[in-house]
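notes to self, project folder thing:

trying the whole complex as one job this time. last attempt i did each chain seperately and stitching them together was a nightmare. two parts in total, labels are on each line so i dont mix them up again. if this works i'll redo the older ones the same way
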Amino acid sequence: MHNLTIVRPSHMLNKVPEVTLAFWIIKVMSTTVGETGADYLAVHVGLGTATTDAIMSVLLFAALPLQLRARCYVPWMYWLTVVLVSVVGTQITDALTDGLGISLYSSTAAFAAALAATFAVWYSIERTLSIHTIFTTRREVFYWSAILLTFALGTAAGDLATEELGLGFNLGVLVFGALIAAFAGAYYLGANAVLTFWLAYILTRPLGASLGDLMSQAKTYGGLGLGTIYTSLGFLAVIIALVTFISFDPRARRSSVLTREKA
Amino acid sequence: MSMCDKVRTTVLLTMLVVAPSFAVGLLTPNVAITAAAAAATSSKLGDLSSFRAIVVDTKALTDKGDLASANARAKDLEMAWDEAEAGLKPRAAADWHTVDKAIDRALVALRASSPDPAACTQALADLLAVMDYMSGKA
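result (full assembly):
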């Protein structure tokens, strides 16, 4: 089922990390940090939503060229980009919901369609959706476009489930965690690796948001009462620790080596 | 690309759209029951007294003509309300939006470049009325 991919069209190495446990932990936590960070600037610092949106977009458009120009996977650059994409993806959905009054049903459907269209175009041009062979700029642009849409979709679908439909963050953690576990189980039972990866990836957005709420919300509301600031700082510390570890551990930088490709 | 691959890709893309919708759909029945229960007992936003107290403070400051202090107190309200969103909103989303919009109107009035004291007082009185209405429903 696996065959080694040795032919590369360019001198770039795979630009994105292997999918390991650390990958998922950082991904889930960066979601929380991204959202509370933007919220902190908008409300606590008092910059307002419009200014915060603008700042975050500028930061993303500053970080993205760094990531795109790199010749190989550089952990801090990659994860900085993920956090910023996370913030901007969330802000896009929030702007549609709060600013334009678009219902979460509509935005969920629209982002699902946009993501499917992105994958369709990506596949029709590249003949693969593999995240193990992101070694051209064109593929990387597809990759980051898809990731931005997974954040926007994950925010819309997650807010719809946990807030508008009243699931709440306690059940949210269980439901999103169980769905991710189901996709992981499907993967190990031989389901399509690309498909299960992206489905789980979408769900990490609402999982991260619910987990952050569980830690930060007051006990009155069923949370642990740590507050958003301590929760975010705690998660940020874990992210920095893991990214630092990955940066200095040669085995953890698996993506620098060309790896197996699921047919 | 073989026919088999094409079929698999089509299935993959279809599932990418269907699976999230399905996941939401799965959750909906429970939610419908919760919503029905919520409607029977009216608002489930619960205790809003901590927020109401801040509005009372803000209104007292506005009535005294101290709009600067009223603004600072309104900021406390904004932060407390924002902080509690994930806890409160799932209880009764529609009611939450009603209160949220009333808070927004009060903030807009207080933060106007040249605030109109009468408009501020009115917006805060309206906000108190909305909160009391929600508490009465609880």
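what i see at first glance: Residues 3-9, 256-263 of chain A have pLDDT under 50 and may be disordered.
need to look closer tmrw
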